[in-house]
Amino acid sequence: AGEGAQERIGCSACDFQWVGLGLGVTDLVYLLATSVEDRASHAALVREYHTLMQGALAGDAGDSTASEANSATRLAVNATVHEYGVALLDFVRFCVLDGVVVEDDAWLLTEANRLMCQLDGGRALQSADYEARLTEVGLS
Predict the structure, then answer these.
(1) Which residues have a Cβ under 8 Å from the Cβ of 47 and sit 6 or more positions away?
(2) Nearest one of 23, 3, 139 to 81, comparing CA atoms
(3) pLDDT digits over 58-95, tens only?
(4) Is residue 78 a contact partner of residue 17, using CB atoms and an 8 Å limit?
(5) Sign of the dihedral through C-alpha 63, 68, 73, 75
(6) Three-state SS at 136
(7) Alpha-carbon distances of 103 from 94, 108, 132, rounded to whole Å
């Protein structure tokens, strides 16, 4: 970047995550859970992410073939919120298995507990039952 570029950048990040199949909101979970202290703003930020992604998909509306293909990939905001919940649970699982301390993060633990209760009603299920519930239940 040239001289003065720093003034033009409002927000920037460099992310070196593993690339592969998964939920698109996973990096959003990592960013919000580790960098945004105002946890009350997470829901609004997830919705803003959804709006911006849908806008990016609609950006090629001049090409009817691409537009039709992209309409199949557009998600309802509830689906994005659900995927965010699933990715947040996976983030907590990763932190616990990797030995990253999360017990001091009351919000993260409370949110994970709330999402798990939505998923399993507060009782342990078999692995196959969790898989089935993930497709049946919309986490919010």
Answers:
(1) 77, 80, 81
(2) 139
(3) 775 445 555 554 555 567 888 888 889 999 999 888 88
(4) no
(5) positive
(6) helix
(7) 13, 9, 29
Residues 6+ apart with CB under 8 A from 128: none
Look up tokens 């509830």; give the residue. Answer: 78
Rounded to two decimals, the pTM is 0.71
46-58, pLDDT tens digit by residue? 999 998 888 887 7
Pair 60, 67: CB distance under 8 Å: yes
Beta carbons of 25 and 84 less than 8 angstroms apart: yes
Distances (CA, A) of 41 to 9, 37, 38, 45: 22, 9, 6, 6
Neighbouring CB atoms inside 10 A of 132's CB total 12
**Given this model, what pLDDT does residue 48 score?**
92
How many CA atoms within 13 Å lie on the side-chain side of 74?
A: 15
Q: Which two tokens stand for residue 79?
A: 């689906």
Percent with pLDDT over 90 in the chain: 16
Using CA atoms, how far residue 75 sits from 5, 34, 58, 82, 93, in Å, is 35, 25, 12, 11, 25
What pLDDT was estimated at residue 15? Answer: 57
